[in-house]
Amino acid sequence: MTAMRRHWAPVLAVVVALAIPVAAGADQPHVLTVLAVKVKGDQDAYLEKVKKFIASAKRLDAGGTTRVWRASLAGTDSGLIFIASEFPNLEAFAKGNAKVQADEELKKLRKEINASGVREVVSSSLFEEVTP
């Protein structure tokens, strides 16, 4: 029995060591970035550019989950496009954002979108989850 305990002790130590960062991250709130955009012209053409941007972020394994929304019944904000990316915590957001900002392909795409005049950024926000 003691030989078996000696065999499993290192395995148990590794499992506990790996679980500590996971448990520490459990206390950190999820974060959500939201970019609100007023599209000037063809929304479908703009959404194709956003699709390329999202695909590149996935290629980089930036760590977030991105979804795109259109405001349908939102008063004066109707028609706005909202690009929302959720991350498990602020650290994951920072790491993913650093990858996205440093990537040459995304720099070029961002520059093209900004130069095209196809959009007006209405707001850019970062939210922390506080669900009780």
Distance N terminus to C terminus? 46 Å
Task: Give the number of helices.
Answer: 4
- Mean pLDDT across every amino acid position: 83
Instruction: Predict the CATH topology.
Output: Alpha-Beta Plaits
SSE sequence, one letter per element: HEHEEHHE
Provide the spatial order of strands within the biggest beta sheet. 2-3-1-4
Biggest sheet descriptor = 4 strands, antiparallel
Q: How much helix, percentage-wise, in residues?
A: 40-55%
Poorly predicted regions: 1-24
Oligomer: single chain
Global outline: flat
Number of domains: 1
Given helix and strand content, the structural type is: alpha+beta
Q: Using the coordinates above, name the CATH class.
A: Alpha Beta
Q: In percent, how much strand structure appears in the residues?
A: 15-25%
- The Cα radius of gyration reads 21 Å
Number of strands: 4
Assign the CATH architecture.
2-Layer Sandwich
Describe the structure in your own words.
The chain has 132 residues and is α+β, with helices and mostly antiparallel strands. It has a single domain (29-128), classed as Alpha-Beta Plaits. 52% of the residues lie in helices and 24% in strands. The chain has four helices and four strands, in the order H-E-H-E-E-H-H-E. It has helices at residues 2-26, 43-59, 90-102, 104-116, and strands at 31-39, 65-70, 81-87, 119-128. Helix 2 runs antiparallel to helix 4. It is flat, with a radius of gyration of 21 Å. The protein starts with a helix and ends with a strand. The model is unreliable at 1-24 (pLDDT under 50).
